[in-house]
Amino acid sequence: MSDILAARAQMAVSLGFHIIFAVLGIGMPLLMAIAEGLWLRTREPGYVDLARRWARGTALLFAVGAVSGTVLSFELGLLWPRFMELAGGVIGMPFSLEGFAFFTEAIFLGIYLYGWDRISPGAHWLAGLLVAASGMASGVFVVTANAWMNAPTGFRIADGRVADVDPIAAMLNPASLNQVVHMTLAAYVATGFGVAAVHAFFLLRDRSNAFHRRAFAIALAVATVAILLEIVSGDATAKMVARHQPAKFAAMEGHYRTEPGAALLIGGLPDDAAMRTPWALRVPRLLSFLAHGEFGATVTGLADIPRDEWPPTAIVHLAFDVMVGLGVALLALTAWAGWLAWRRRGLPDDPRFLRACVAAGPLGFLAVEAGWTVTEVGRQPWIIWKIMRTSEAVTSMPGLAVPLVLFTGVFLVLAAVVLFLLRRQFLETDPARGAAAAPGDR
Amino acid sequence: MTAEALLALAILAALVVYALAGGADYGGGMWDLLATGPRARRQREAIEHAIGPIWEANHVWLILVLVVLFSAFPPAFAAIMTALNVPMTLVVLGIVARGSAFVFRKYDVQADAVHRRWSGVFGVASFLTPFFLGLVLGGLASGDIRVEGGRVTSGFLAGWTSPFAVGVGLYAQGLFAFLAATYLTVDTEGEADLQEDFRRRALAAGVCLAPLALLVFVLSRHGAPEIFQTLAGAQGLLLFLGTSVCALGALAALWRRRYRWARAAAVAQVTLILLGWGIGQHPYVIVPDVTFESAKTAEPTLRLLVWTLGGGTVVLLPSFAYLFRVFKSRDRRA
């Protein structure tokens, strides 16, 4: 394996691992804050019990997210020193702001997790809100830095170094708003459906369990609001990509020939040599509409992009279709939930619906992984769009297969342990038993 | 004061706080590994109780150092991560192992065998990571890492494999162990037997620091001439005196069971040591080819970073004060 491929693989593994925990680190505090807020309003002890249980899982997830995020911040330099040398001064701002958001999150999570009996309920709830807000802010800042790699602005290159740097303009690049909104909502979608799945699983055993009914209702409500907005955000994001990164957009759609009234291709396997995408479902003229808002608009195809600037078409197209497909599936699930809720004027707890919710648990996370695959692989061969190639950014360190194997091993072990511990926490405890404090709470 | 000088100072300040707060968390892990006697389990509980709520916040200081370094001095960051790729990789592996083992231990079943297994990982990683951090700092000061035209020309072993760097690594371990045991004497107020355990450990670690400090000083003559020159000069003498007074003060206070005084003296001691390193290292990020001046990025970014750090600190300090007030107040069993 070449060193550049090893470096890319290590980055992909690290990001793919971290993003799960980042998503939960953004989503879980919101769920906890809602539950605790309901407790403050209703004084119904079931809600605070729920917040406490969710907090236990979150503590574990947050710690793993913190250490895997640390790995990434080191890897920026260990794997891509030339990239950081060029970009550090331009995108340092969002990273610095992220540092402070992370600080706030870590401080108030400590207070939240260990402070149940040490501060007043109001102060505790506020600490939880701060964790939710700073967790979201962390994500916003990191995604802003990533958006700059897709739409680099706020500088120019002179003699191989950056000049006329405007860090604010770099943060407010054309991709930022869309990417930030899309990813933040994705975190709530994935967490909402993921948590709903766990509680749907228990409701299938005992549909009258008040604890799981409350938990399921909160998670499903968050997921519902988020998925509806996410579909709108996805459309806006695709239009932005079509405008700013035509090569990435063409690869996403498996679209080779520049033409007006372009057809949308669903599925299929793009064939770069033949420059077509066989076995795809074609919807005439829809691609033009989705990309530019007009059925007759011209959509740039890969044929008009220099061959050495093509991203790996097949991966990007399939990942994009997987993401969109999963989003539509979750939307359908939400529509079903809405119909059931409207008909019964209550929590949708039809067993078939609950089973579907259990099955849908991982889908939000898969969509996030697929979406990041589109963003990152779709940007190739560039690390900074049209400015620096990924191959120019990699470290001169030889033998990069060694850290790849090492870190992949570490992440596999971490994943296995986290799954084992969470599973036991979910399955081997009886959450219906009331407000008895778990051993980790003090 | 120029923006890059302020940011260099901010990096040093963040490193000092990281050593004082995060360093003590590593030290706690070492004492966890070395917990012995009839009160071993209670020692471990006291350590867990002391670092549980705060270690993640303490860890962020290191992230802040990294972020300011790559935002304000990107070529220096690139050169450091290239030349010190191996010890940096070891540092981050250590951080992952320590942090995850600590939470896994807390959330796994509390059976002795399981507890011991996670404690082992947590303790060993807490032991090794400061050593690797010391290798990195030693490498930066060694003068062996050469950078020409932004490219590292001295390979991937220069600096951090020298006896001096190894000395710094050992010294960092000793320092963190001493800090942690000294803090723990205050954290265990009201439990006289535990307090005695940590007092003995703090005294032992404190006494061991003296020969380690001497070793680093002697090795620096050839291993880090730039640092040695500062330490051997008038400034160095003052720093040496100040550090010695604090060190002896800390030991004396421990001996006389004046634990809050001991903690204050230990904090001053570690601060002075890092200050001495900072003065010796100045104006270099990597001795002798990369200075803060030569590695600084564009002026607008530097100015904005100064404002960001200033604004961030205004938010951060009250938050930290609140965190420590909630968890480090006298009634630890609230």
Summed up, the helix count of chain A is: 14
Chain-averaged pLDDT of chain B:
90
Overall number of domains of chain A: 1
CATH class annotation of chain B: Mainly Alpha
End-to-end Cα distance of chain A, whole Å, is: 50 Å
Strand tally of chain A is: 8
**Which CATH architecture of chain B?**
Up-down Bundle
Question: Roughly how much helix do the residues of chain A carry, as a percent range?
Answer: over 70%
Largest interface: A-B, 70 and 66 residues
This entry's quaternary arrangement is heterodimer
Query: What is the CATH T-level topology of chain B?
Result: Formate dehydrogenase/DMSO reductase fold
With strands numbered from the N-terminus, the spatial order across the biggest sheet of chain B is 1-2
Residue stretches of chain B low in confidence (pLDDT < 50, at least 5 long) are: none
Specify the structural class of chain B. mainly alpha
Helical run tally of chain B: 13
Strand content of chain B: under 5%
Radius of gyration of chain B: 20 Å
Describe this structure in words.
The complex is a heterodimer of chains A (442) and B (334). Chain A is mainly alpha-helical. Chain A has one domain. Chain A is built from 14 helices and eight strands. In chain A, strand 7 (382-384) and strand 8 (388-389) form a beta hairpin. Chain A is globular, with a radius of gyration of 23 Å. Chain B has a single domain (3-308), classed as Formate dehydrogenase/DMSO reductase fold (Up-down Bundle), CATH 1.20.1630. Chain B has helices at 3-33, 40-51, 55-72, 74-83, 85-107, 112-142, 163-187, 192-223, 225-232, 234-255, 259-281, 292-295, 299-327; strands at 147-148, 151-152, 284-286, 290-291. In chain B, a hairpin with a 3-residue loop joins strand 3 (284-286) and strand 4. In chain B, helix 8 crosses helix 9 (225-232) and helix 9 crosses helix 10. The relative contact order of chain B is 0.14. Chains A and B meet through helix 2, helix 3 and helix 14 of A and helix 3, helix 4, helix 5, strand 2 and helix 13 of B.
